[in-house]
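Step 1: inspect the first sequence and its tokens.
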Amino acid sequence: MATRARDRSRHVADRGDGGDRTSPREGRGPRAAVAALLGSSGQIAVAMMLMNLATYGFTMSAARIIGPVPYGAFFALMNLVMIVSVVQLGLQATAARRISADPTHVGQIEREVLRVSMRASLLLGGLLLVGAPLVNHLLGLDSLPTALLAAVAAVPMTMTGAQAGILQGERRWRQLAILYVLSGVPRLVVGLALILWQPTEFMAFLGVTLGYYAPFLYGLAVLRHGRESGDTHDRHGFLPVIKEAVVNSQALFAYFALTNIDMLVGRSVLDSHDSGLYAAGLIVSRAVMFLPQFVVVAFPSMSTSLNPARALVSSMALVGGLGGACVLATAVLPDLVLVFAGGREYDEVSGLLWVFALLGTCMALLQLLVYFVLARQGTLSIVLVWVALVVLVGVASTMVSSVSGLLGVVLAVELVLLLVLSAISFVKLRERPTAQ
């Protein structure tokens, strides 16, 4: 029984999408090459493109429809949710790495990850529910029901992370691609309908909240028949999974807090109008940051790569190249980019859009380095991310009073961190390829 389960697990991991195979006859010619690409991890890129287009389509629509002041409140709450989504991403990274590194125990890993994610989602939702009055006050929402929606959104969001990690680790690309599409398209459709009905920050975030339930319900459906456990191992038990998820989550928390705390600080140091302008500029940053989403697909391979230095250089070159192209395009065509960042109502920030694109490039490179550290099971570099977070909050809270000032502080801190982490990563890889 154990041998059959082990063989079946390896078979699932090797099949690529959890069920598609191409015969030798079908494997010839350009059409077959395209089919093979779309039948494996290539379809994830398409799914993520659709997810990001839908997500940013709704974000840009909300900026135009509800106006700068409500949009500033909405975006601040979105940043808070993105920060707490580190639990979701930590669970996803844990599941993907463990299953990819040890497919013979996929059944045990799946069961324990889902068990941990259920408890984590309920705990996070409960904390946000209790802390809703504080969130309402700190973000200046003036709407307790809007703050409460964060708790309602946290539960399905966190569970979806575990589901995505299982599908990612098993390389079930088709199901993972559908899950990603459902993470964006329902938000656009439902959210747009709600803000057209009532253009408020509550309706905007209600659309986001309802959108989180679509991928969660799909994940429940595709994982309803769990894998057979086969043989088990103590290292994949409940406590080891929790430990790795916590380590991954705190690392990702440091990164997401660093790259999202500026909007939360901006709500306290800028007036409502300027914070809305800053939020519009961050649409460009987020677009550039999430453009190179191949990191998610590459994560299982990164954890077992025999040449991590080459993998890191290639990945950074590709991410940097894409980001550089975006910065150049934004500098040359700021008026066109402004159309996608909220329109003429946000014209005051048009001259800074290329700087926001540069910030997005820096954030994307930092994201790559953080995921690389997690894939190699290193922790040293994360300390510097925490230090950068403290510096950013301290400086921005006491020395900033304008949109350009806040943007300058954030960019300077993240550029310095990027240079230091890059140097440390390559030095450590040269000294000890499997540790960082």
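Step 2: inspect the second sequence and its tokens, then contrast the two.
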Amino acid sequence: MYVTRKLYLLCLLLLCAGAALAQEYTLLLKGGHVVDAKNNIDDVMDVAIKDDKIALVAKNIDPKKATLVVDAKGLYVTPGLIDIHSHNFFGTQPDHYLSDGFEALPPDGFTFRVGVTTVVDAGGAGWKTFSTFKRQTIEHSKTRVLSFLNIVGEGMRGGPYEQNLADMDSRMTAMVVRQNSEIVGVKVAHFSGTEWDPVDRAVEAGKIANVPVMIDFGGHVPPLPLRDLLLTHLRPGDIFTHTYARLTGRGPVMDDQGNPFPYVQEAIKRGIVFDVGHGGGSFMFSQAIPAIKQGFYPTTISTDIHTASMNAGMKDQLNVMSKFVNLGMPLQAVFKASTWSPASVIHRDDLGHLTAGAVADVAVFSMLTGKYGFVDSKGYKLEGTKKLECELTLRAGEIVYDLNGISKPSWTTDPNAAAFANKK
């Protein structure tokens, strides 16, 4: 009897192992509306995943071939979102602002719940401090953390630190960029002087390291000419963030008649990247509404998330994306500006799409309908009827967020549930 029982258990184990080996896919997202800009997919399809890679995107994939099947009917399935302007060099150092300071955010607590799988820290670290950022945040985050390196060696410490021309070194910045694959560009921010040196030094570093520059422009009163920045100092492929701001120290992109200034139209043709970079003070409906009506869409949609902006009108990536949906930007364009476009801008063509063999960073969304309020950086409200909500996020094939348990079995299948029922 004992030998017979052992043989039975052994056969059972072999059958189970064989069944597991027979599964072609570890996970199958079934029947969702897939939007993948790189591959021109905008249709109801299935997405099959094998371990940490996309295996197949097609219609009617046999669910018997997958170990786990998730019903995505009525939901949108996209590549994991990429927030190209984030602030994640968090720490506890006083007088450090977004460079190892209190206002930056640990990424994992604020990414997966909105479908973001990749963030790009926008200049928190400079060449002097990047090693700390890498050791402290990048190496300990499930979220993929990339970085723009600040032209200021001390990084984004705020105040006089970011006005110090002596700490803006093109050669050292480029060297650290080339030494670290996580760095995808150079950042300029918060300079309030009349000199063009910070921009020009950042662009020089970008040329040496062959990466784009992101610029948070303005601060001087009267403002330096935005035309000169876009048409003379920046290169095609460089990034102008805070596109829809209206600030005292920076010229706007839209004129008082609701049209893009001619130099803005020329910059678009030149290939300048226009990024949202919503933040706490850099997104105004008075600029965004006429821009979208004119078809002037952002190249990339990003948050500029930190402790202040997330608790003000910005909130999170999906709230910013929902604003553009309600302003009339097509949903497919909104998804593209949050996936494939940012991946292309930072020269990371391995990200932002669902091509077979690509890393399985995937997000699943519902589109809520109702009455919602969206607030800009001046405190003005826009009422809308649509709002994106994240249902499921996968990072490298692993389920890292599941809002309503769509990937989980019912509790009634738990053996303990049956035991509990018998006791009743």
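Step 3: confirm your contrast with the notes below.
Residues 2-22 form the longest helix (21 residues). DSSP finds twelve helices and 15 strands in the chain.
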